[in-house]
Amino acid sequence: MSRVNVQEVPVWLTSVVIPLLQLALALMVSSLVVLIVGENPIEAFRVMVQGALNLEFGGLHNTLYYATNFIFTGLAVAVAFHAGMFNIGGEGQAYLGGLGVTIIALSLDHLLPMWLMAPLVIIAAALFGALWGVIPGILQAKRGAHIVVTTIMFNFIAAALMSYLLVSIIAPLSGEATDSRYFASSAVFPKWHELFEGAAFSLLNPTLLIALICAVMVWVLIWRTRLGYAIRVMGQNPSAAEYAGINAKKIIIITMAISGALAGMMAVNEVYGAHSRLILNYTNGFGFIGIAVALMGRNHPIGVVLAALLFGALYQGGTELQFEMPGLNPELILVIQGLVIFFTGALERLVRNPIEALYTSTRANLQAGG
Q: Which residues, 6+ apart, have CB-to-CB distance to 31 below 8 Å?
């Protein structure tokens, strides 16, 4: 099949319609898995959807809380991908972002109110995440070390470093084994149920708005700035970028700094907004899920936000499924997530190629017919 010119295919098709078709295929296969274990797939998906979207028990709020994490990590992967790099270090970059948040919060939480603390926390999370992203960028730009290898290695380094700092330095200050003390309530973001009386308990907090702002800023960066143009040229044709006078090494370093900063800002949601303290292994694999979110969203901010909402719903709906249908193994949600990733990643072209070709040929026929 001939390759379709991606410039001729609109965003609504590549980032909305095609991912929905891929999701439908994944859910069809998931239904067979549920049938095999002896349960009703229609009932299972009803429970998941209701658990992810209900307002009475805070299901929708928790879906948005999870989606906030995935927006940050998905955007981090997407920005790097536009420069032709595969940043698999979102987990470590988010972890280091949590260290930045904790240092600022533990130092100033009894001195500053939330309105003054929040900007400092956001900057610290971004800077620490950028630092952990820029080091692999420098290693690739200056030494030729492959970004995939170095970012994976830095995930392990971040985990070891944070374990040492938490257990040996941060936790003893509060008497906890692996957690920091709680930040002062006057210095942290309020939760959704604290802002609106009568709302169900959830961990949703104003960081969601920051994530959406970051999505808009990434769109502006990639498609409306000279730096974004250089990043895209670098990702699509490094030889052409070099011929055009673009400094490839500089672009690699800057892109990885931006990517790491976005991943690091996940800590604003988890450490500062949701838990108000630093917890061991708080990233919980969200950095890796960001890869699937970026793939499903076609590395476009709109697609990333929509894919993040989907994975947030899967997380929250899977939690509800464990309570309502105990006969299903709790790991089933991982199977469903894996199938979504499989159809949007490994078999991505199975759906995309024929749909894009159909759209292009149909449009050409309509234009030819006047």
A: 41, 45
3-class DSSP assignment, residue 3? coil
pLDDT tens digits, one per residue of 31-42: 888 888 888 888
pLDDT band at 169 (very low <50, low <70, confident <90, very high): confident
Per-residue DSSP letter, 172: G
- Please measure the distance between the N-terminal and C-terminal CA atoms of the chain and give it in whole angstroms: 27
Can you tell me the distance from the alpha carbon of 45 to that of 317, in angstroms, rounded to the nearest whole number? Answer: 9
Contact call for residues 228 and 241 (beta carbons, < 8 A):
no
Domains and CATH numbers, the chain: 1-39+352-370 (no CATH), 65-312 (1.10.3470)
Query: Quick check: 133 and 109 in contact, CB under 8 A?
Result: no
Tokens 């070709």 correspond to what residue?
Answer: 357
Distance (Å, whole) CA 335 – CA 362? 36
What is the model's pTM? 0.90
Per-residue pLDDT tens digits for 70-111 = 999 999 999 999 999 999 999 999 999 999 999 999 999 999
What three-state secondary structure class fits 179?
A: strand
What are the Cα distances from residue 75, in Å, to 90, 189, 266, 271? 10, 22, 11, 19
Residue in the structure block whose two tokens are 């990885």 = 256
Q: Are 132 and 68 in contact (CB under 8 A)?
A: no
pLDDT at position 1 over 70: no
